[in-house]
Amino acid sequence: MNFAELGIGAPMLDVLSRAGYTEPTAVQAAAIPLALAGRDLLVSSHTGSGKTAAFMLPLLQRLKAAPRSPGRGPRVLVLAPTRELAMQVDAAALAYGAGLPRLRTAALVGGTPYGLQIRKLERPLDVVVATPGRLLDHIGSGRIDFSRLETLVLDEADRMLDMGFLADIEAIVARMPQDRQTLLFSATLDGVVGQLARRLTRDAQRIDIGATPERKADIEQVMLFADDLRHKTRLLDALLRGAEVRQCVVFAATKRSTEDLCGLLADSGFSVAALHGDMQQGQRTRTLQRLRDGQTQVLVATDVAARGIDVAGISHVINFDAPRQAEDYVHRIGRTGRAGRSGVAVTLMGHHERHRVRDIERFTGQPIRIDVIPGLEPRFRPAPAFKRPARPGPSRRPSDRPHARWQGTR
Ligand code: ADP
Ligand code: MG
Fold first, then answer.
1. Is the pLDDT of residue 22 over 60?
2. What is the pLDDT of residue 211?
3. Which position has the higher pLDDT, 291 or 216?
4. pLDDT at 277
5. What is the pLDDT of residues 157-175, one digit of tens each?
6. Average pLDDT over residues 183-206
7. Is any ligand 1 atom within 6 A of the Cβ of residue 337?
């Protein structure tokens, strides 16, 4: 199956082949024909599976048809949870649509000045990509009209609900034409997301690609036990000095701890920057640009701030603080192993956090190797207390844990 057979036409096909997209991913193969046919979709598919192109390509293709009514409001609206993601989707729209005559897009995201956004809204637009809060601001001041909206996309809908955007989304959707097309993307379609999905869509086709990547990124997963904060810090320092570290994202639990760690690492001589949700958009953009340019070697970030970062130089992810949820773990380690390269994900675990490892392993279906750095061994060897009923016992060299048995117990 290729993109042409899915119904994608000339200008975009050129862009795709230049970008090295030789064949559609599973979610693209499933979603593109249905989206082109105007169907509503509920899609769950793992991070990195190519969901952006799965909706953007067919919607750009549909923009070739004349708008159904005159006006200047957007024909496609994409809602995304964070500024960073919204900017990425906007950039993707411009990239995929590079061959389309006069494609007009706007990213309406918080943390950036209103001026440019307002100027863009004064002229006709094809695609708007927005975070819910800022979009509501513009709606509230009557600057945007949805009379000619054809398609609404909710990207990372579960994340938007986690971030408390449910009421905002409902308020936005209330302004849209009833006969629009709705495409909803979410890691899960259970619970509140499922209920929202049912309210927003009509006769939706469900696409479920499953949690396990079909093009599994080659990410080595390792865990180091840490006795206390001081030990963790020494482990981090030793890891970052490893010869094989090109660039690294270090995850911390809070904005405060990202800044503290960032200061500490700067004092130790690393080229380091922090990224968290309180930063102004301009500052975030500059920070990410320096990371892309290779000027920053270590980025210390919170979960939300780092979501969606796609920088090929990131060879390592280090979880300084363990992720709260197994899903966060998957999103975190997905920052490495990009662009077909391999990556290493190291989680520093306090002894009291070990139960989280089990949750993560269950969620991913992949074992995490327990390792030690010579000279920085934990005082407490986890082995004796580390009971795993009906599973192979712990080991300092868990490569001798048979992978097959893990899969079998899922
Ligand atoms: P998701 O939203 O599912 O997490 P993205 O849409 O961000 O994934 O895509 C992840 C990466 O895969 C991006 O770098 C994108 O350019 C790339 N990509 C998407 N589709 C293809 C394809 N068909 N072939 C090669 N690379 C692709
Ligand atoms: Mg995405």
1. yes
2. 55
3. 291
4. 85
5. 998 998 889 999 999 999 9
6. 92
7. no
Inside any domain, residue 391:
no
Whether 240 and 175 map to the same domain: the answer is no
> Quick check: is 137 in a domain?
yes
pLDDT at 214 over 50: no
Total structural domains in the chain? 2
pLDDT, residue 315, reads 94
Question: Quick one: three-class SS letters along 302-352?
Answer: CHHHHCCCCCCCEEEEEECCCCCCHHHHHHHHCCCCCCCCCEEEEEEEEHH
Nearest CA to ligand 1 atom 19: 50
In the structure, what pLDDT confidence band is assigned to residue 70 with cuts at 50, 70 and 90?
confident
Quick one: 227 and 338 in the same domain?
yes
Question: For ligand 1, atom 26, which residue shows the shortest CA distance?
Answer: 21
Amino acid 187: pLDDT: 83
Map residue 197 onto helix, strand or coil: helix
What is the rounded average pLDDT of the residues 297-326?
89
161 & 241 share domain: no
187 Cβ below 6 A of ligand 1: no
Least confident range from 47-61, 177-191, 274-288: namely 274-288
Return the structure tokens found at 362. 């269950």
State in Å: Cα 169 to ligand 1 middle. Answer: 26
223 and 257 assigned to the same domain: yes
Same domain, 203 and 97: yes
15 lies in some domain: yes
Q: At what angle do helices 51-62 and 26-36 cross, to 10 degrees?
A: 20
pLDDT tens-digit map of 89-104? 999 999 999 989 889 9
Q: Residue 350 corresponds to which tokens in the numbers above?
A: 């306090």
* Same structural domain, 154 and 203: yes
Domain around 226: 218-383+396-408
Residue closest to 127 by CA, chosen among 96, 169, 160, 170 = 96
Closest ligand to 29 CA? 1
Residue 51 Cα to ligand 1 midpoint, Å, equals: 7
Amino acid at 117: Q
Chain centre distance of CA 56: 16
CATH number of the domain to which 306 belongs: 3.40.50.300
Q: Which of 8, 18, 25, 47 to mutate to test the pocket of ligand 1 (most atoms within 8 A of CB)?
A: 25
Judge whether 318 lies within some domain.
yes
Which ligand ends up closest to the CA of 26? 1
pLDDT of residue 39: 97
**Residue minimizing CA distance to atom 22 of ligand 1:** 21
For residues 385 and 225, what is the distance between their CA atoms, to the nearest angstrom? 13
* Through-space distance between the first and last CA atoms of the chain, rounded to whole angstroms: 32
Expressed in angstroms and rounded, the spacing between residue 311 Cα and the centre of ligand 1 is: 13
Same-domain pairing of 9 and 66: yes
How far does the centroid of ligand 1 lie from the alpha carbon of residue 310, in Å? 10
Q: Which atom of ligand 1 is nearest to the CA of 52?
A: 6
Do 256 and 125 lie in one domain? The reply is no
